[in-house]
Design goal:
The chain is an all-alpha fold and about 325 residues long. The protein has 13 helices and no strands. It has helices at about 1-25, 25-50, 55-80, 90-125, 125-140, 145, 150-155, 160-200, 205-230, 240-260, 265-290, 295, 300-320.
Length: about 325
């Protein structure tokens, strides 16, 4: 009941974050998350002293969610002026036309990332499910490269002309794809140490599934970045097509391969599903922009020069 009561504050925080993105105020967009996570960490450290149980954990989630949601709207009100409820039928219609496909994409995307775990739990033992969840948790690290950029990309693309937006998205995708490849390659080597150090030696049984999921995790960066671009251009429906493709492969693949090969079969299904979803998204993006495949995948010397100059500029600004 407490978590259900928290839903309005969670939504308020999310809405405030997106308004800050629209305003170009990324400081407060990130600050809300820092406040929430920092407060949660502080309260959890307190629980280590007084003792942890389910009720106290729920209370921590409730308090941190409430504080970050209220803080978001207080800051937002100071930035944009008074906020009041009002009904606008025209805007509501526009929101539905754009929002329903977007919500469908988000819902399907959530199922894509979690359906495999439900199916593994149905087919295999809870012990195997635990190993698989840990494998997914670590294998998703290459996806996090794009996670940090999608909202910023969306905000910039929505305010650009088509040619400039395409150039920005292509360059961003090339850099992110390269970073994701580096992250995945590093994980191939250090994943056993991460599993042992973080979860314990018993979780080394997840290493094969983790390795098998890495190609799909790298490809999933295309899904996130290109969907952010297309959604900013008013074309969110392509996300539903890519998501449904992935969902179908995840469902059929897990039902066929998981009983045969265990969590490794589930990992293969997920990796193939993510990759096919990326291919559908790439095809949709190329159709919309006319770009070439190599414009999205292969980082160039000009990209490295621009990246180095940007990092140098940020570093000098930080030092000054």
């Amino acid at each position: 009941l407490l978590i259900a009561a928290l839903a309005p504050c969670v939504l308020a925080k999310l809405y405030a974050e997106y308004v800050f993105v629209g305003l170009g105020c990324f400081f407060w967009h990130n600050a809300l998350n820092v406040v929430e996570l920092g407060l949660k960490l502080l309260l959890l450290c307190g629980l280590l002293i007084v003792g942890i149980d389910l009720g106290r954990m729920v209370a921590v989630v409730f308090i941190t969610g409430m504080v970050s949601g209220v803080l978001g709207w207080i800051v937002l009100r100071r930035r944009v002026g008074s906020l009041h409820l009002a009904w606008d039928q025209a805007m509501f219609t526009r929101f539905l036309d754009y929002g329903l496909p977007s919500y469908g994409t988000v819902l399907i995307g959530y199922l894509n990332l979690r359906l495999d775990q439900f199916l593994v739990g149905l087919v295999l033992s809870m012990e195997q499910l635990g190993l698989y969840i840990v494998a997914v948790l670590v294998a998703e690290l290459p996806m996090k490269v794009a996670n940090a950029i999608t909202k910023v990309l969306f905000a910039h693309v929505s305010g650009m002309d088509a040619g400039s937006a395409t150039e920005l998205t292509n360059r961003t995708t090339r850099v992110v794809f390269t970073l994701a490849l580096i992250t995945a390659t590093t994980l191939l080597v250090i994943a056993p140490f991460i599993l042992v150090w973080t979860f314990g030696p018993i979780y080394l049984g997840a290493i094969s599934a983790l390795w098998l999921m890495l190609p799909g995790a790298v490809m999933f960066n295309f899904v996130q970045l290109l969907y952010s671009d297309l959604a900013a251009r008013g074309r969110p429906r392509i996300g539903i097509q890519a998501g449904l493709t992935s969902l179908l492969v995840t469902l059929l693949g897990n039902l066929l391969l998981t009983p045969l090969w265990g969590i490794e079969g589930a990992a293969i299904s997920s990796s193939v599903a993510y990759s096919l979803s990326a291919m559908v998204m790439i095809c949709g993006y190329r159709q919309a922009t006319g770009c070439r495949l190599r414009d999205l995948a292969w980082i160039t010397a000009a990209d490295l020069t621009l990246l180095r100059a940007s990092i140098s500029k940020r570093w000098k600004s930080y030092r000054s």
